[in-house]
Amino acid sequence: MCWWLWKRDISEPWQLGFQDAASPAMEEIILFHDEVMYILMIITVFVLWLIIRALTTRYYHKYLFEGVLIEVIWTLLPAGVLICIAFPSLKLLYLMDEVINPALTIKVVGHQWYWSYEYSDYGPETIEFDSYMIPTSELKKGDLRLLDVDNRLIVPIQTEVRVLVTGGDVLHAFAVPSLSVKIDAVPGRLNQTSFYLKRPGVFYGQCSEICGANHSFMPIVVEGVSLEKYIRWVEALK
């Protein structure tokens, strides 16, 4: 990887898995995904073996289609598997929906086709700015085509951040995979989500709602910095 990308969490060519997690919620999502995939592989191999044996062995064929015991087993066993998957899934779902004592609130407004950010926790002086995708003709060395923006969303690490999301014109969706953030931006409605950034870095996302002709040209860039650097950034803007 090039030296100027070492701090950036981006997808790679032919990537099949998730991006590296930057929040506790995303770590739990990846762990849950791996557990479910492990169960899925066991079920797939077992069912495939059972089908092959049933087709090639007369005894297995008779036992599978005329046995009462197997009927009980393949009714109770899937139910047990679904329960084992459902409980951690519901736990994770409720944990992701919970907002616990946020230290910072950011309002995100989706427009056609850019994002607006508002920091309103600093008295009457609200910090507001728009974030546009950098055109290909203006990219500098190290910038990512269709992903980099002129103004990044700066947040401090190890801080609970609440995000209020709405739409200014049509439906949008604020999504950053590394932070497990994906929420609709609906005009006239304020949706709420949160994340806890564990480490510094630059994290990329995009609008995941088909919002018009330039839907694929409104990226999201979240930069996690230390608290000291974040304070200096806020003071420079005020």
Automatic annotation (TrEMBL):
GO molecular function (one): copper ion binding
Classification via PROSITE patterns: COX2 (PS00078), COX2_CUA (PS50857), COX2_TM (PS50999)
Reaction(s) catalysed by this chain's protein: 4 Fe(II)-[cytochrome c] + O2 + 8 H(+)(in) = 4 Fe(III)-[cytochrome c] + 2 H2O + 4 H(+)(out)
Record's keyword terms, sorted: Copper, Electron transport, Magnesium, Membrane, Metal-binding, Mitochondrion, Mitochondrion inner membrane, Respiratory chain, Translocase, Transmembrane, Transmembrane helix, Transport
Sequence ranges assigned to domain Cytochrome oxidase subunit II copper A binding in this UniProt record: 101-236
Cofactor: how bound: Binds a copper A center.
Source species, domain of life: Eukaryota
Segments crossing the lipid bilayer: 36-56, 68-90
KW Ubl conjugation (keyword) present: no
Segments forming domain Cytochrome oxidase subunit II transmembrane region profile: 10-100
Matches recorded under CDD domains: CcO_II_C
Membrane topology, as annotated: Multi-pass membrane protein
GO cellular component assignments: mitochondrial inner membrane
Names of the cofactor(s): Cu cation
Keyword Ribonucleoprotein on entry: no
Localization of this protein: Mitochondrion inner membrane
GO terms under biological process: ATP synthesis coupled electron transport
Function in brief: Component of the cytochrome c oxidase, the last enzyme in the mitochondrial electron transport chain which drives oxidative phosphorylation. The respiratory chain contains 3 multisubunit complexes succinate dehydrogenase (complex II, CII), ubiquinol-cytochrome c oxidoreductase (cytochrome b-c1 complex, complex III, CIII) and cytochrome c oxidase (complex IV, CIV), that cooperate to transfer electrons derived from NADH and succinate to molecular oxygen, creating an electrochemical gradient over the inner membrane that drives transmembrane transport and the ATP synthase.
Family indicated by similarity: Belongs to the cytochrome c oxidase subunit 2 family.
PANTHER family, per database record: CYTOCHROME C OXIDASE SUBUNIT 2, CYTOCHROME C OXIDASE, SUBUNIT II
Protein name stated in the entry: Cytochrome c oxidase subunit 2
Species for this entry: Iotrochota birotulata
Gene: cox2
